[in-house]
Every structure is written in C-alpha cells, then in structure tokens.
Amino acid sequence: MAAVLLDLADPAVVADPYPAFAHAREVAPVQWHEGLGLWLAFTHAESNAVLRDRRLGRIWKDKDPAERFESFNLIHRNAILEMEPPNHTRLRRLISTAFARGHVERLRPWVEELARRLVDELLEESAGSRPVDLLTMAEQLPVAVIAELLGVPEADRPLLRPWSNAIVKMYEYDRTREREEAAERAADEFVTYLRGLAADRRRNPGDDLVSSLVEIRDAEGDRLTEDELVTTCILLLNAGHEATVNVTGNGTLALLRHPGELARLRADRSLLPTAIEELMRFDSPLQLFERTATGDVEVGGVVVEEGQKIAALLGSANHDPAAFDRPEVLDLGRSDNPHISFGAGVHFCIGAPLARVELQAAFGALLDRTSSLELGGEPVRRPEFVIRGLAELPVVLT
C-alpha cells in the first residue's frame, strides 16, 4: 500500500503544493495518508471517479460534541452538498427551480457595473504609484453580489463576510478550539439572521432568491423546509464567495507572473471565458473534497473499505499530464480543459453560472479600466491548505 508523506501544514506545501502533487502522482494514483486517516486521489481519472462514483457519498456526521456545534451541524445536516439521492435529488430540483427564474442573468449588468466601480476605486487609491490590495475588490464583489441575489438589506451586508470567513475555517485539518468556537458563533448568528430574513420575505416577497426559495414548490407540491432554505443561503455565500475571491486573487497573481498571457488577454478580450476556466484549473481555489465509501470500492488499484474516507485532490487532478497538455503552462486559450474545480457528477457546483458571471466581470473590469497592472509587493498567502487563496495581493494600477 502506497503511503503519502504529504504534510498539509508544511508552509512550503501550502505555498506551492504542485511539485509535491507531481511527485505523488509518479508513486501511485491513490495513496493512504496516515495523519489524516483517509485515502488521497492524486490523478485526474481517480479524482473524477471519486466525485462521480455513487458508492462514494457525502455522508454528514455531526461534529462532536454535538452540543458545542449545534448551529454548525444544522447547516451541514441540511446542506445539498452533504446529501445523497434521493434527498439530494429533491433538494437540488427545488433550488434549481428557484435559480431558473433568471436571477443570475438579471444580475449580470449590475455585477459588471459594480466590478467597474470597485476597480475605479482601486485606481484612484493607487494613483499609478501606490500599492493597493487587490483582495479588497476581490472580497467586496462576490459578497455584494450574493447579498443582492438574496435580497439582504444594504445595512446588513457587512455582517456576511466575517460570518462566512469564520465558518469555513472548520474545513481545515489543523483548526484550533478557538477557531471551532468562532465558527459555531458565526453559524448561530447567521442562522438566526436568515430565519428573520425568510420570515420577512414570507410577509413581503420581493424579486430576490430568498423570496423564490420561500415560494417554490415542485410538481408534487413539495417545498423547502426552513432549515433547508437557511442552509442553502449560507452555502451560496460560503462556497460562492470563497471560490470567487480566491480565483480572483490566485488568477491575478498567475497573470502577473505570466506577463505574456496577461498581454494576450488584453489584446484579445474574446479569450475571457476560456481564461477564467484556465485560471480555475491552474491554481484551484478548493484543493480537497472528501467522500465516504458506503461499501468496499476499488479506486486506482486500492480498496476503499466501507466507512473509510477518500478525498479528491482537485489541484493535483487539474495538473495531471494524463488529462492536460503541458499542465504546468498557463494557456488562457486552452480549449480542451476538463478541470474539476467546480466538482463533478451530482454534486457539480450549482452556483457555477453565478461564479462565472462574477469572475468574467472582475477580470473584464481589471482589463477595461486599467492600462497596466503590476505587482506592488510580495503577495501573502493564507496559511490553509484546503481552501487555497491569498491574504494580500499588493498591486499598482494605472
């Protein structure tokens, strides 16, 4: 049995995991990680299989002790991401019906205008010489978009980012008790807030996603429970804004380190859709996604026993030379790009269309409103492995 020696807390691995991934892929496609107590799939084929095989499920087990994590457990127990069919099928159908009311396309012009305004603010602050943190714009845009999508009042929007940031720290493997307690507090406050927002939309429905989620029924007359509605809104913010922030940061840094590709995109804006997909592949915002075997399952020549966990390493899969031509090369025109940054199978990200609208607006505004974009200092990477992103990205814009 191949056993990986990958240390996910090693600062060198957090800074750049891709050389370690390349070495691991040469050893075996699936390897056991003793420290994590689970299997890791390093190749594209095996990671894709992990995401698609129905015998490998998302099976939520409440965090113990349950009384410490009441709200955190509630929002995961009712999350579409943590369900398998038939419950997953029912919930996804209801959420998809609400999204089908045109909420994403309705917001596109608003998102593009917001992105232009945020870039203009950075330009004014930078004045062609002063470094500014691009993460300011990267963080404001998706939170504002999801708040607008949900119909969160303007005055309450500053609450959302801190809640989400605290909750997602629970997905890391080296979390402290302090972070656990902060995540539970944030989950409890977020749940309470959204219960109040849903109650208001029942009394006063509007042209927003929460109103649609409150109203929606399927052909059988089924509807979302209040816990499912609350959880869906929290998942949209947590997953949606984290992905957009980190693709914007990671992707901009990749462009700055590949000036030829940045110039290519400036010269040919029709590349923007494929560029977004390539930036998601090149430095994936989510690196690891766990599944649990519901029976003995063979993956990549090993048997994952019933009850054992196996994780798809999305960043490693997205750099697998068996699936991508010259994977270490950033190619914004890459047309054959089966990246799995949005997942695969029944759990393919339901918010992918919204994320693409946000990312095209963000990068489009950066290109449209600036004549030059340069690094203004050393980037600071977040110290976590699972959710890969930057804490600071100083740039100079003109």
Summarize the structure.
With 398 residues, the chain is an alpha+beta fold.
Short key terms for the protein model shown above:
12 strands; alpha+beta; three-stranded antiparallel sheet; five-stranded mixed sheet; 15 helices; Cytochrome p450; 398 residues
Which secondary structure elements does this structure contain, and how are they paired or packed?
Blueprint: H1 11-15, H2 18-27, E1 30-33, E2 38-41, H3 44-52, E3 56-57, H4 70-77, H5 87-99, H6 103-126, E4 132-133, H7 134-150, H8 160-168, H9 177-203, H10 209-215, H11 226-256, H12 259-267, H13 272-282, E5 288-293, E6 297-299, E7 302-304, E8 309-313, H14 314-317, H15 352-369, E9 373-375, E10 380-381, E11 390-392, E12 394-397
Structure notes:
- The chain is α+β, with helices and mostly antiparallel strands and 398 residues long.
- It has a domain at 62-282 and 345-397: Cytochrome P450 (Cytochrome p450), CATH 1.10.630.
- 51% of the residues lie in helices and 10% in strands.
- The chain has helices spanning 11-15, 18-27, 44-52, 70-77, 87-99, 103-126, 134-150, 160-168, 177-203, 209-215, 226-256, 259-267, 272-282, 314-317, 352-369, and strands spanning 30-33, 38-41, 56-57, 132-133, 288-293, 297-299, 302-304, 309-313, 373-375, 380-381, 390-392, 394-397.
- The chain is globular.
- It starts with 10 loop residues before the first helix and ends with a strand.
